Amino acid sequence: MLKILLADDHQLVRNGIKMFLESEKDFEVIAEAKTGSEAIQKNKELKPDLVLLDISMPDKNGLEAAPEILDAAHEPKVIMLSMYLDEQYINSCMEAGVNGYIHKGADQEELIDGVKKVMEGISFYSKDVRDVMVNNYITSLKKKKKQLAQPKISLTKRELEVVKLIMKGYTSNQIAEELFISNRTVDTHRANLMQKLDVKNSIELINKVTEENLLESD
Q1: Whose CA, among 33, 151, 177, 199, lies 20 to 30 Å from 124?
Q2: In what order do the strands lie in the sheet with 100-103?
Q3: Per-residue confidence (pLDDT) for residue 149, from 0 to 100
Q4: pTM
Q5: According to the UniProt entry, which residues carry 4-aspartylphosphate (predicted)?
Q6: CB–CB of 203/165 below 8 Å?
Q7: Residues 52, 4 contacting (CB under 8 angstroms)
Q8: Which residues pair with 31 in a beta bridge?
């Protein structure tokens, strides 16, 4: 018999999930909790095989309670239940080490399937959650591809020399003296740099050079 602790601060939600779970002859909800702290305490006392945790609960929320529950000596599995389909919540749960993340919009079959897979040692994420993870991954790949497709900014040796002196706070006169060139030539290099880097002043220029690691090409 699979012993389950169900933690959610809404009685009606607990009733519905419990009914779904106990439709399986080998599943038993041995206790319920309505706060994170209560879930931690009942996990220690009753040693369930699986804890179903709602993310949003008073006292301690599911994310705060999960590490303490997972660290228990009897090594229970933990599945997070949530209405949230936000990448931040999903990533936070993965970092916390939970064994699964099931959206509360999932149906009974998906919930039961998730519980069985987790108890077999397989991480489980409901379809809505997987869709978010895949879409975010694709968006990230497209962003990286776009960044790689952008032409690399290339500065001449003289432009790099001028940039270094600008970053040291040199004035145009000081740069001209340092490089043995005319003030007009310095102004020309400044104008070319502003155009190449698409900036309007020296502060933006310095920030752009730093962000793009342009001095590494020297």
Answers
A1: 33
A2: 27-33, 2-7, 50-54, 77-82, 100-103, 124-125
A3: 60
A4: 0.65
A5: 54
A6: no
A7: yes
A8: 5
Half-sphere CA count of 208, side-chain side, radius 13 A: 19
Q: Which two tokens stand for residue 42?
A: 């009942």
Query: Burial, 153: exposed, middle or buried (Cβ in 10 Å; 0-12, 13-18, 19+)?
Result: middle
Give the C-alpha separation, 93 to 204, whole Å.
Answer: 38
Q: Give pLDDT < 50 ranges for the chain.
A: none
Tokens of 135: 């879409």
Amino acid 216: pLDDT: 65
Question: C-alpha 76: how far from its chain's center?
Answer: 25
Name the phi and psi angles at 103, rounded to 5. -70, 140
For 100-115, what is each residue's pLDDT tens digit? 999 999 999 999 999 9
| Residue ranges in the chain assigned as alpha helix (H) | 11-21, 36-46, 62-70, 87-96, 108-119, 127-149, 157-167, 172-179, 183-197, 202-211
Cα(51)–Cα(116) distance, rounded to whole angstroms? 13
Q: Which residue type sits at 196? A: K
Does residue 76 sit in helix, strand or coil?
coil
